[in-house]
Amino acid sequence: SIKGDRMNVSLKADVGTLQDVVLIGYGAVKKQDVTGAISTISTKDFQKGTITSFDQMIAGKAPGIAITSNGGHPGSGSTIRIRGMASLNGSNDPLIVVDGAPFGGYVNPNDIESVTILKDAASTAIYGSRASSGVILITTKKGKKGETKMNFNTQFSVGKISKYVDVLSADEFRNYINNNFDSTINKQLGNGKTDWQKEIYQTAITTNNNLSISGATGNLPYRLSVGYLNQDGILRTDNMQRTTGSLSLTPSFLNNKLKVELNLNGSLTKNRNANQGAIGSAVAFDPTQTVKGGSPTFGNYFQWLRADGTPNPLAGNNPVATLEQKHDIGHFNRAFGNIKLDYEIPSIPGLHVIANLGADYGSSFGTTKIDSTGRENYSITSDSTIYKGLDNKYDSKFENYFAEYTINYTRNFESIKSNINAMATYGYYDDKSTKNNYASFDYKGDTLPNSVPKFANGLEQNTLISYIGRLIYTYDNKYTITGNLRYDGSSRLAPATRWQLFPGIALGWNLKNEGFVASSNAISSLKFRVSYGETGNQGGISNYGYIPSYYLSDNVSEYQFGNKFYSMYTPNAYDASLKWERTGSTNIGLDFGFLKNRITGSIDLYNKYTSNLLAKVNLPVGTNFTNQITTNVGNFESKGVELNLGFVPVRNENAEWSFNFNASYNDILIKKLTQFSDSSFKGMTTGGISGVTGQDIQINNVGHEPNAFLVYKQVYDAKGKPIEGAYVDLNGDGIINPFDDQYYYKSPFAKWILGFSTSYSYKKWTASTVLRSNIGNYIYNNVDSKGSAITNMAINQYLSNSVVDIKNANFKNLQLQSDYYVQNASFLKMDNIGIAYNVGKVFNSGKTNLNIQVNVQNVFTVTKYKGLDPEVYSGIDNNIYPNPRVYTLGLNLNF
After folding, report:
1. H/E element holding 509?
2. Contact 742, 817 (CB under 8 A)
3. Which of 232, 577, 691, 741 would you label with 247, given CA atoms 20 to 30 Å apart?
């Protein structure tokens, strides 16, 4: 508008233009030229609240990626799976690349601009042997030319436990003991009423402060940031303090022909690690005993002692003493980064010579101490020497390097309506780690028996060399073909098998630019994609697994000659023919947008087939130096479909309302698991459980999902209660036998993974929420199975509490293999709900903008599962560290 001699101009961001470039491996392309299955999540889409790692930011935000928390311990991270599993014994973790550096180091979430997920093999094949489980590309924020900008973000949060394991109260426990045991047992009951779980958990306070400054000095764009996080765990004595820093420089020289990108990231982390053994102890410890009132020898904490005043080694430790008497202080420091030099040859426009060099250093060190009054680590040797307490130190470090040299040629040939993007790369990657080994001492400094290490340190190193090529050809902005090859060689494999070729090819058809679609006003975008690619896996192979080697026996396996004891060397098992595990993947996809992209989405169908499967198999006696070995033995297949939908029903000057829904279905099946057909092969058990020594609850076998539960079929009475020891005789021989009468029942992996998020903004207010759901996952409730037997409540001269399920099961003895404990763990979770208010300009300067946010994380869970949390990646719930409910107040200031 024009008023007098003044013109008012309103500028509006062109969202389509801003999103026109998509990151792919070793570069970026126009969105219309993308041919693979790729999801990108940017700053505005990230989850909010107390976010301490990038995985928390993207949970529930994209189809095909499952993020499962490893527990509520500060810094514990998550298990990330892209399109399910790709291996049984190899690595299933995706490759994480930060600003082109394939290190996957910790990055402060406040420094992250976007996260791109490469899912299909045509997209990931460019990363070859490291990409069978997908690739995650993290891009950090960069400085820009213009006015210097500062940002200060501060958060204060309170975390509380949201649910306790349901155990018998003190009165219920007394009744059970009185009704089921005689007076010799009853007299062991105490006079207290202690809720041990409430004794070990606390209200966790977290403060998170971040400061960044960005801009440009002359021709030098920069961004510098520092952050400090102080996070308590909800388990008493648990705390993490992390200081982070990052620096980004992106200058250009020689008339913009030479572009330089320098990225540096560092973190200093200090942990007071709580003894997580207290979690299980709190569930099982006698609730009639008090926290204190015991022997001064053990710090006045109540402990189960024998008649001679020494600890009963079979009884659990006092949960509070477990926490208070152990001091595990650990430090982890890490610095990584890279420098990228991109020079365009002046005489050949579009031809770039690129060098990308990086390094990654990390060190871990600390001490573990147990007080002299601690029951833990109390021991008496055969010569009656008493050892109490512990003083142990540990340290290790790693150093990783990489160098990539690339020639890239990009040119648009308008006369023939063609665009070519070709590249060739040589990559060198070297990883090395060392660990120092120390003896352990008691609190007086005396060396603990059998603790002196055989070697002062250990060293592991492996090298990967790669040759990479890719060609992207686009014709008439309609048809795109992408082909890439990667040739990898790994030092983990023998010379005869260490080199492998990984190809990928993809086709894209941009239908929106076809005449029969271009004229449609309703259709904003429409593209068809199809791809095939192969990737590899060496993650399950030890560094020297193909070389004959020996190990030195430990201190309790020495031979005596005269008055001296000598360690003996024993051969390690090895497989000289180990080779790459290979995964081939086919993907068919459709991207669409309607009504000026107010409705957008994609649908993908995929099939992954893994051959030369790395699996642990049994060996005939005398054929090697062990009874099991990891070798290439089988095949593995997964199929799935992914759907992503976005909808913006409201968008005007004052308000915007957006929805996102994503869903993925994945079905996994083991196709082969033996070298030769063997009808007698019953599978390989896995998934160890507590309650008895050396017992598994899961199995891998042909025709079944990985890690399926192997259990007996429980028989129930007329009232629906399980009958102790009564199982269905599946083979009808009148005898209940392992394997013969056990069956494959369910899987820990969800068939369906759903995500839903919505955000509504009105003027200065914004409200948002994120929900996630898993459907079809099952969990073996090991907390209940090991804690619901009457005889186990009073055994070996001590008392132990039980879970309330004992009222229903009423088992006298443990029934660990019953399918009664395999429970439906499908769930609906509200991960996050929050509201933000943009205060606007504050202070007199008028240059400072304030935004206030309030968030709640882990809001509620709807599930039939009887345990604490239905989200356990392994499928075995055995006293996991609970995830807290977190309330956060955040202030964001832009200067």
Report:
1. strand 499-510
2. yes
3. 232
